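>> received
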Amino acid sequence: MERRTHSTHLDDQNGWNESSRRYVTENEEFYVPREWRSKPENSKQGSGDPIDLPEFTQKLVETIDNGVKLYHEAMEAGIAPEQARLFLPAYGMYVRWRWTISLHGLMHFLNQRLESDAQFEIREYAEEVKRQASLAFPETFKL
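>> returned
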C-alpha cells in the first residue's frame, strides 16, 4: 500500500491537482534518465548499480518523439484532448502539479523519500521540496 502524507484526488479535492492536458495545452517535456540502473537485489524499491545500456536512451527518445507526433496528429485531426493525450508516454512526462500539505505531513514525506533506499528520482524531487520548504520554514529546518 502506498503511504499517504497529503491530500489526494480521493479526498476533498483541495489538496492535490495535476494539469491533465484536457483543458490546458502546454509544451511536452519528458524525463530522460542520465543513466540506467539495474534492478535492486531486494526487489522492493530503489535500484541497483548503474548499467551501461545507452541504446535504451535512444529507444526512449524515439518512443517519446513518436508519441508527441501522434498526439499532435490526433489534435489536428480534431480528436478530443482527453483522448489525444493517450499517445503521450505518461510515466516520463513532466506535469504541472499543485500539492497542499501540512508541515507535519511534509516532514513525514521528506523523512521517507530522502532515505537511501527510496527511488533515485523521488529522492531528487524530495531534495528540491526540502530546499524550497526550508526557505519558507527556516526555523523548522534548523532542527
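>> The first helix runs from residue 54 to 76.
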